[in-house]
Design goal:
Number of domains: 2
Distance between the termini: 38 Å
CATH class of the largest domain: Alpha Beta
Bound molecules: adenosine-5'-triphosphate, magnesium ion
Number of strands: 14
Oligomer: single chain
Strand content: 25-35%
Radius of gyration: 24 Å
Shape: elongated
CATH topology of the largest domain: Rossmann fold
Strand order of the largest sheet: 6-7-8-3-9-10
Structural class: alpha/beta
CATH architecture of the largest domain: 3-Layer(aba) Sandwich
Helix content: 25-40%
Length: 364
């Protein structure tokens, strides 16, 4: 049994939907509670997602959270807060520690150091409680390929012990939301990755968790399927008030989808903020110089200057990432005095992608 199936198979209380996604009753519920109320005390509002949690508290909070695997520090002193009802994206390259963060937050691995709470529960002690109240989708969709799409969801809804009527209502609502309803009787093994991924996401939402974790949800999808899925995730967060914690190595995805983005590299959080703030912070102007003689000595001199955040040379081109809106004449003079042959100088804003890569290299 996979980790994910084991997670779902935990004993859970009875579940009863708060209404069809996007319906007035659901929106009322989401707006009123964002994270669940003590619905279990109220018949009209009882469900697997029925736990009291004040909206003012962050859905996720960590302090100096760290995890070592032998001599490898997979995560180093992560301190973040994720407000309820928002989408948080952890953005980083391979081996940055993204999956490790999700595993720690779900209580699937023990931290080496540091603290964390998820929906108010301590990740050290209450992993079961956290897993019961959240949804999670890791790299593998974890579906039964020989079953129909409907039967897959029905199977998992039974594991969550959802009563029959609630099960039917919830499955139809989710399948309609993801555009899968018309194809509900098709065998999942015959589906492409995009549709399987939508179904897998629907599966994580069956029991109406107030918080879901998606580990690289659009990995392996073509650009059109990925864009469609992003739209649906955003709509879901808004219509149901669900907090989404996702990981990605796709900068554009983080920018489009997330309220807040954390940049993670080699286990360290380099920066955290709203995508537009990060864009401003990392997208400093750059100077492009065409000429000759941009050797290592010249680059070393440049990199020591306060106006310079990074400098790279290739063939007859030198690119200098500036630390802000600085006067560049002294830099050109420095190049000339160092013996470089300057033929042309252009100043422009870096593309976000270039700026991001340079930022990741620079702070490493
Ligand atoms: N179970 C494990 N045993 C040993 N090392 C591990 C284990 N899990 C993760 N690591 C190491 O921890 C580091 C972070 O891994 P993690 O899987 O969290 O990165 P990631 O950002 O999710 O990478 P990817 O983009 O490839 O999924 C890597 O160096 C990885 O090799
Ligand atoms: Mg990973």
């Amino acid at each position: 049994m996979s980790v994910r199936t084991a997670h779902i198979a935990h004993d859970v209380g009875s579940a009863q939907p708060h209404g069809v996604i996007g319906s007035p009753s659901f929106r009322r519920h989401a707006a009123a509670h964002v994270l669940p109320c003590d619905c279990s005390n109220r018949p009209e509002c009882r469900g697997a997602a029925g736990w009291s949690f004040p909206v003012t508290r962050p859905a996720i909070a960590t302090t100096n959270l760290s995890r070592d695997y032998g001599s490898v520090r997979a995560l180093d002193q992560l301190s973040i807060e994720v407000p309820a009802g928002t989408i948080f994206g952890l953005l980083g390259p391979n081996a940055a520690g993204k999956t490790t963060v999700i595993r720690l937050l779900l209580g699937l691995v023990e931290p080496t150091e540091g603290e964390g709470t998820v929906l108010g529960f301590d990740i050290h002690k209450h992993g079961d409680e956290i897993r019961r109240r959240t949804g999670a989708l890791f790299e593998h969709p974890g579906l039964y390929e020989r079953l129909s799409a409907y039967d897959n969801l029905d199977y998992f809804a039974r594991i969550w012990r959802m009563p029959e009527i609630s099960r039917r209502v919830r499955i139809e609502s989710l399948m309609r939301h993801f555009g899968l309803w018309e194809r509900r009787y098709e065998i999942v093994g015959a589906w492409g990755r995009g549709m399987q991924q939508k179904l897998a996401i629907a599966r994580t939402l069956l029991h109406q968790p107030p918080l879901v974790f998606f580990d690289e949800p659009t990995a392996g999808l073509d650009p059109i399927a990925a864009a469609a899925l992003r739209k649906e995730l955003a709509a879901l967060s808004h219509s149901e008030g669900v907090t989404i914690f996702l990981t990605t190595h796709n900068l554009a995805e983080a920018e489009q989808l997330c309220d807040t983005v954390g940049l993670l590299r080699a286990g360290k959080l380099l920066a955290v903020g709203k995508p537009a703030e990060l864009r401003d912070r990392i997208q400093a102007p750059q100077l492009e110089i065409v000429g000759r003689g941009f050797d290592d000595d010249v680059l070393t001199l440049l990199r020591k200057r306060a106006e310079v955040r990074a400098a790279h040379a290739a063939d007859s081109n030198l690119v200098i990432h500036l630390s802000g809106d600085v006067d560049t004449a002294p830099l050109v003079s420095l190049l000339v005095e160092s013996g470089a042959d300057v033929q042309e100088v252009r100043r422009r804003g870096a593309t976000l992608e270039t700026a991001f890569l340079s930022f990741m290299e620079e702070v490493a």
